[in-house]
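User: These chains co-purify. Model them together.
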Amino acid sequence: MKAFNIVIAGVGGQGVLMASKVLAESALASSMDVKQNEVHGMAQRGGSVISFVRIGAKVHSPVVLPGTADILISFEPLEALRYLHYLKPGGRLVYNKATINPSTVAAGLATYPGDVAQRIAAACPDARPIDALQVAKRAGNAKAVNMVMVGSVMKGLPIDAAVVEGVVREISRDKGAEVNLAALRGGAAAA
Amino acid sequence: MKKIISGNEAIALSFEDSGGVFASGYPGTPSTETLEEVARLGNVYCEWAPNEKVGLESAIGASLAGGRALATMKHVGVNVAADALMTLTYTGVNAGLILMAADDPGMHSSQNEQDSRNYAKFAKIPMLDPADSQEAYDYVRAGFEISERFDTPVMLRTTTRISHAKGIVEQKGKVEPKVGELAKDVPKYVMLPNFGKIKHVAVEERLLKLQAFAEESPLNRVEMNDPELGIITSGISYQHAKEAFPQASFLKLGLVHPLPEQKIRDFASKVGRLMVVEEMDAIFEEQIRAMGIRVDIGKDRISLCGEVCADIVREAAGAPVTSAKTQPVTDLPLRPPTFCPGCAHRGLYSILSKLKVFVSGDIGCYTLGALPPLSAMHTCICMGASISAAHGIAKVNEIAGRTEKPVAVIGDSTFFHSGITGLLSMSYNAGNALVIIMDNRTTGMTGGQENPGSGRLLQGDPAKEVDMVSLVKVLGIENVFEINSYHLKETEAAIRRGLETPGPYVLVDKNPCILRYRVKKPLVQVSDEKCTGCRACLKASCVALGLQGSGEKPKVAIDPNICNGCGVCTQHCKFDAMTVATGGTHESI
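Assistant: Joint model of the two components:
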């Protein structure tokens, strides 16, 4: 089996790392080899974040190369466009519609492009924008956007949804589990 | 039980499983989580040292006292610890000692891209280079065995994609920690010249023994497949090369110094094209060529700069690349890291930017003050350099007859690390700079580690907080004052006083890191009627701010999910359009 490549993009502080952890743990729980990798450090301070999860019988490199991602999950539209070239032809993109201003826009040095959604749609007609913030709020916590995003791609993963749910239950802190599971299911329904 | 953990976590786990007794180090990406994980696991004593040299020296003491010891640091930290390392190699160890050096090829979060493998050659010590989390785990165990068997410190070298990448790890049986005798052996441990001369011979002999060991050790493994292409590689480069050419033959090095010459010779004789894949410097290639062995593909085809990936390996060997021809979209606004909403550094830098002073910077979150629109930093070299460099600038300004007084900015952790000696020099040598210590009581950039000023130890116990003002005074600085940079006017006045007063002048900004201490403050609100769209507030360079609407003069809007109510933007507003919601004051943090 060729490695299944997932790329998760977002902004520092959005929970990209936790989403990656859920996917990686789910692969382990499914007895597959897995490597997960993101670069943190400077990225924590509101910078652009990109994380890789590779799943397969045997995974060597932890890095997903541009043009080879089976799935791209983006927590923010501009970041979806920024990392769109990671997607392989025919790959699947799900992104959160809520925008976050980059520091360059906030400082008035640049403008947030008004045509991000159109450009994504032009390059990737099957791209699926979802309102993850609303789904997360309905689930009980605006911070659960990351679980909504994981849920949104669950159908296309080489992993059983029940395994993902089990992992989310395990790694959520006591009372957070129900909210996270609701967010996960909400994401699956929204996509 | 199998678990999925990062290389750093694997090293920590193995340290505990391999009879580790003492661990020290200084935070630095990508090494930081190693000691944090030792602390989280909780069964072995560990601590943060104020800098890497102190960390390694303490580990030397621990080894002398009979306990297996670990010192962790990032690649540039090894430079700080190098003084200790270069003589530690002569004395050797009592109990096993591992120095973990985490390199950052690609400079994801570093100021340079130095290759720590050079240090193993330089110090004439063995170095292990794991290729995934499992090997990171295994090599700690192997490292202690080598250290004790050959009486040598061992370097365990990782790179960012080993330290931070997660992979599956299976734990091995536990070695119970045991503490041996405290070593008292003057000729071995006191490096007076006469003893040192004897030990240098021992170091060279040890290297020969290690070479013989490298030939036999399973740490260096041959994987014979298709002999047309033979690849010599190590660490993360092995994974990229394996990804590119799973059917090729490999000599996969785990012990990367000293090299197994005979094994390399045998391997080279069995393959068609010999390729050497290594990130950064041509350490293997130069040595292999010096053995008189032909290298067909090496650094002539693989860059000395940045990371390697599978496609770089493919391309170097003349194979088609698999990544798509799709190009990244390049006309998008960048999203560089920036100060957190609510961070105290923002106010300070907006003043320094306004005053257009020369700012000598240092290593930490506050290095981001160099980026636009703040653009208020003009040099940044290494930990602690801000103060010493400002001192040199001031001296030459004086010689040249320039009246401008430079400003040094430095964080608390960096000041404890190596800023103290710079300030001591400035005080002693009658310097003339304004030093601003941003004392947020944590090591912020690496994620909020404890330090001598934070009042906590790595393992969570309370500690005595160093009083910054007293520390500065004791160095001979008379003018030292506390400021609160959330108040722009007062802070500006204090900075102007510091610039006008001749001689060393120190301001201490005592505001806790809002990320580390989870400070939450009431939101700032904008009056749509009063906002004129003048953009003055945007000088605060805060991601919570944005322009709303598309007219000629769009007005400012605040993202309530992001704003942390520091109020710096409100003080830039000349039209009273911005207010912090009632109930909050800046002091409330």
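The longest strand of chain A covers residues 87-96.
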